[in-house]
Amino acid sequence: MAQSDNFFNLKGKLGNLIFCVRNGKTYVKPYSGGFVNGNSQAHPNVKASQSKFSEVAHFIGNFKKAILPLLWRQKDGSFHNQLVSLFYNIKRHFPDDSLYNSLKRPETLKFLKQESFNKHHKLPAHAVYFDAEHNRLEIKTFLLKSFEKKYPHTLLEVAFCWLEIKPDTGVIPHNIQTQMLEVNYQDPSDIEKIELAPQPSDPDVIYWPFVCLSLLDQNDALLRIHHPQQSMWAGVV
Q1: Taking the model in full, what pTM does it have?
Q2: What pLDDT is recorded for position 42?
């Protein structure tokens, strides 16, 4: 509905016309129907985009359910949006492939290993490293030391699993394991090595090594109840 600034200026929609003010001048144009216009919704480009987004949304729903056992609560609310951004960009990069075939590509795994699924918490380079040859996770203790001043009296929970990506874009976690680490290491040059459960053996299935790092209050670590800290970082390694 249009609003009047003064007797002569209108802003907004009036009937089938839209009024707007730019640099002190009033402009008018026909109302095209916006995002709900029937013709625009039937456009092939719009339908193709809707199909792609539907496939990505289905995968993200399955992905979030699969990693839920590894995650504590997210305070910033950006986790879902970051997943949408990451996986939609992958799908858009390979427009002629299904999402599953896009996820099978080696370059997709390489891309995901460089990304944080929580955009407000990015780790320093090489702070967490997956040693595929020895099947272990390496945590540089300078990362633990960096949490000490801001989050005293906490533990860092390292949660790991193998994520199986199915052809119908279902996601299944395998071999979930967790380990608690102290954040007050004296020597920041040390490396904490965590031996991992082996990757499931099916060579025709996509498996991603997935890690979530969470800060826990010392008193809550064994009880796994809600606490004032949060999942700091999550991603493929």
Answers
A1: 0.72
A2: 58
